[in-house]
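FW: tagging you since you asked about this chain on Friday. Here's the raw sequence from the shared folder, copied in full. Didn't touch anything.
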Amino acid sequence: MRCLMNIQEIIIRDAKIGDEYQLAELSVVCWRQTYLGLMDDLILESMNIDERLYGFAAALRSFNTKFLVAELHGKLLGFISYGSSRIQQSGLEIYAFYIEKNFQGMKIGSRLLRAAEGQIRISQVSRLWVCTLSSNVSAQEFYIKNNFVMSPLMKSFCIQGFSYPEFVMYKLL
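HL: got it, structure written out here
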């Protein structure tokens, strides 16, 4: 599909009710691709589309989380979600940002990020936060390439009894 695809055919749009299954499926696939070797295999193996489906259905109906998706001919290739910062009182935070591995390196992530930043600027918010696992170098490189800087703050991401250190990054808009 990648070789035959025209990048201009990819649509960046707001997620809508009805996208929850594809978001849940994409989330599980991307977690397994992204965190293989970075997180314990038990975490990745236990991920379940049905469990994620409920969370995405609730989030899409919420006014607290905003989703943008990259879509090609009805198939979601990636998404970004953001909302109020859980890191600092000021600004917004990227909660999740994933592009299916076969479509990485095609500027889809950059397009999604620019679209989100455009929406955020309209709301007159000037700072965008994101956390990345300290071991996720490719994510850090992506954010640095897109003008994010490392904060002196560190966090821990805890899941199923495991704890992973996270770098905190931000961008002034």
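FW: The mean pLDDT is 95.
HL: agreed, and The first strand starts at residue 11 and ends at 14.
FW: great, closing this out.
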